[in-house]
Amino acid sequence: MKNAIIKITDRHLQDGEEYTSELTTSGEYELCENGCKIIYRETDEELLDCVTTLTVDSGSRISMIRSGKYNTEMIIELERRHSCYYSTPYGEMLMGIYCKFINCDMNESGGTLRFAYTIDFNNVPASENELCITVAEKTE
To answer: What is the pLDDT of the chain when averaged over all its residues?
Structure first.
């Protein structure tokens, strides 16, 4: 694993309103045989003490696992809908995730992971989401 500076830009479209957020944090990444792995600690006050691990497999599937205060695993697979449990302080919810695209351009010194997906609850559309994760090797 290499130390990295990770910048995450997140765009949501929900109920006709667009929201964006940006997070810059430190973490780790590594290239794997069929993709890459990115690990970072959440800095949002609500998600403090949570660690998120993104594993990209062959550029067509992402596993997003959050552990800590909220334990969640989302499978984001190109052109396929997955049902995932999402943990909140009020209980667990079952949500559907459908991936529109994945673009992974990572190398030894970092790179970019972009992907877009929709979320639904009980087959009722809830939001459209797009993430752009930029990874830069941290040299000390």
So the answer is: 89
